[in-house]
Amino acid sequence: MKTQLYIITGFLGSGKTIYINGLLDNLDLSDEKVVIIQCEQGESEIDNAFECNSNVHIIKWERTKKSVLKLIEDILKKYRPHSIIIEHNGTESTEKLLEDLQKPVIQKNCVIHNIVHTIDAQTFEVFIDNMGAILTEQIASSDVIVVNNSSDFTKSRLKAVEKLLKTVNPTAKIARTAGDTGPGAQEGNEGLYIEKQTKQLKLSDVAFFTFCLLVLCYLSVSVLKAANFELININLSRFQALNTIFISILIQAFPFILFGVIASSVIQVLISNETIVKLFPEKMGLGFVAAIFAGLLFPVCDCAVVPVAARLEKKGVPVPTVVAFMLAAPLMSPLSIASTFYAFPGQPSVAIYRVILGIIISVIVGLTFWIFPEEKQITLNRLAAVNCKCGYCNTGASKKPASKIEAVFKHAGSEFFEVGRFIIVGAFLSSLVQTFLPKDILLKIGGGAAASIIIMLLSAFVLSVCSTSDAFIARTFVNQFPMASVMGFMVLGPMIDIKNVLMLLGNFKKRFVAKLVFLIFSFTFIILSFFSIVFFGL
Amino acid sequence: MLIVRSNKINIEALFKLVILLGFAFFFSMIIATGKALLYVNPRIIPYVKFGIAALVVIALFYIPDVLKPQRKANIGIYLFFLIPLVSAFVIQAKPLDTKSIALGDVNLSQQAGTGINVNNASNAAAADTDSTWQAQDTSIPLTQEQPDDDVYSSQLKLDGDTIVMDDNNFVKWLQELYDNKQKYQGKKIQVIGFVLKGKELSKNEFYPARLMMACCTADLQPVGLLCRYKNAPELKQDSWVKVEGTIKIIDYKGEQTAIIIADNVSNAQKPEYDYVYPY
């Protein structure tokens, strides 16, 4: 049997040694040899009872004197232990250690059983803010996180700590050591020391499962084809149509999202916070102007603007400015303006009104966020940057241009996977609407001026696919609905729709998204009602 | 949450690689085979090409990571990407018709049904394309200035004395016939479209319609000119026909509208391109 490796990480005084004592208690020391590698000497020591046990060997190790590879090799040769416990230095990278342990010689004889990170609840909140990358990296690479010394914590404070840990490492098991008397101390401590194999899959299982699924798909499709075609034809063609629409939305959205995440990564990696903040003038008024006209330089759909806006906010641009930018950019983009001209030729006023109304609404919603500021952080995950595996956010800036380019694309990749799933869900919902909701339902509702505006705003939310096609969709409503409400469709569509809300939820807090959606709807309604009275006397 | 373990490779990086390259491959494949036109407007294709490049470049940077083992991987979020990727490959793209999109569904029989929709759409589409920017060369960027009238007149040519509406100029002709209808009173016209009927139409009326795509299949809408033909009741809904007739300007529901008085309607092959484009 392979030697089991236990890796214990954590800062000095966070309870590593206490944990090891608990672990030793749980190992069968009567006929299993255990070697403990200590990288640093803390206040606590391994219990005397264990130190005297002839099956327990403690080895002090300094990285500078001996490599991990050599050390483990020597230990394996000398003791042939059942387990090796590595008490790792709290200021060194776990990933680095894991990399060293990947050497074939070690791989052949050892298997990593568990990586445990211990934290001291008392100092954790200070550390996480100041130590940043080194701490989050250790947390992120652990299987188990042990929270010590939380006995005087209230339940809610403890929850906050655990939530923070979950953000950094969503998969780790969070537990507290025995003897800890904090609220609910013994909850979930099962398997704390010796890991129980729970619902974890092996790669081969996944591959097998996927293969079976594909075979099943293939068989069912061929059976359906062979079977009475007429009978199932209708359902199948509906399904096929749904899939075609779904994929088509993704095809046209992906390039824009990729553009958005790359732009966001360039801002993240190449442009310093100070420069970005300086780009938007300090005075709120000028800031708005800059935010609104930034859209002209940013020729993309609404899908691309969300990650960029979230990035600007994280870089320190004021929330009202970010909101104004996010709402105005898709309407101000040359693509969207041009599409309006094409959709309503001979009526340039339509395009002009659309832009002006868009600016007015963006500014008003932005101003509302200025007058009633958000007290808390509006973006998700204050640790998102450290959680990012782009290699840049974790380890800090490298001066080499080559590695910066790598960082841009890796960061773009991880953002693409973050944001992409929301667009996929959104695109699926939109395609369901397109396939199954007859458009003429809208026409049947009709109604007065106010009602028609509301109907158009809601259908913009549901039907809008991409800010460049909104104008063309809107055009089909011209004969049934007053111009003001069709205008509402075109103004609201690029600002907010199903997939956009999902993307916002992926980047911003729920509270903020709810407020934003509410404000956009209310102000668009008010302003368009006003618009329709002034221009059409309705 | 799906957690996978491996001591050999980085599973997350592997999944990322498969997804990025999978989509890049799918996009390239549909562009190479021309199937892309079943999904998006040709104008979107340059963007898709950019997308392919971006996907491949990002993927390249993930390759070295695959061999750096990661003990535990949560692959839950990658399923979101694998599902459309698999369905894109497994389920063939389908040229949509009025049966498969909601707008042409049940409602053909109802007053506010597709017919009216078509009518508007045609007006709207007609209200659309004013000049030549949607020339045959689809690579002209959206933002290009509209060429002046000289260029324009050289684009929409009568074939002898006959208007021939084809894949490339369908929407342009609709627009032209809406803008300058009087000019075409009594001219011969030839058009291929699918038969679209609605309850609000008279027995002898139908639309030889085409589906117009502004951006992607999600925004398809039928467009076409109203046509009067004595044998219209015999025409089968959604079948492709070639209509030969004469343009007549009539007062239709209070508006001067160009319609076709058909002399001859014959069965036709489905055109090469499934959709027509406003630009």
What is the element layout, followed by pairings?
The complex is a heterodimer of chains A (538) and B (279).
Chain A: E1 3-9, H1 16-26, E2 34-38, H2 48-52, E3 56-60, H3 68-79, E4 83-87, H4 94-100, H5 104-109, E5 110-120, H6 121-131, H7 133-140, E6 144-148, H8 155-168, E7 173-175, E8 200-202, H9 203-226, H10 229-270, H11 273-279, H12 284-294, H13 302-314, H14 319-332, H15 334-343, H16 348-371, H17 384-387, H18 401-436, H19 440-445, H20 449-463, H21 470-475, H22 483-495, H23 498-507, H24 510-536
Parallel strand pairs in A: 1-4, 1-5, 2-3, 2-4, 5-6, 6-7
Helix pairs in contact in A: 10-13, 10-18, 12-14, 13-14, 13-23, 14-16, 15-16, 16-22, 16-24, 18-23, 20-22, 20-24, 22-24
Chain B: E1 3-5, H1 11-33, H2 45-66, E2 72-74, H3 76-90, H4 114-126, H5 149-155, E3 162-165, H6 170-179, H7 181-184, E4 188-196, E5 205-212, E6 221-224, E7 227-228, E8 240-252, E9 255-267, E10 275-276
Parallel strand pairs in B: 3-4, 5-10, 7-9
Antiparallel strand pairs in B: 1-2, 4-5, 4-8, 5-6, 5-7, 8-9
Helix pairs in contact in B: 1-2, 1-3, 4-6
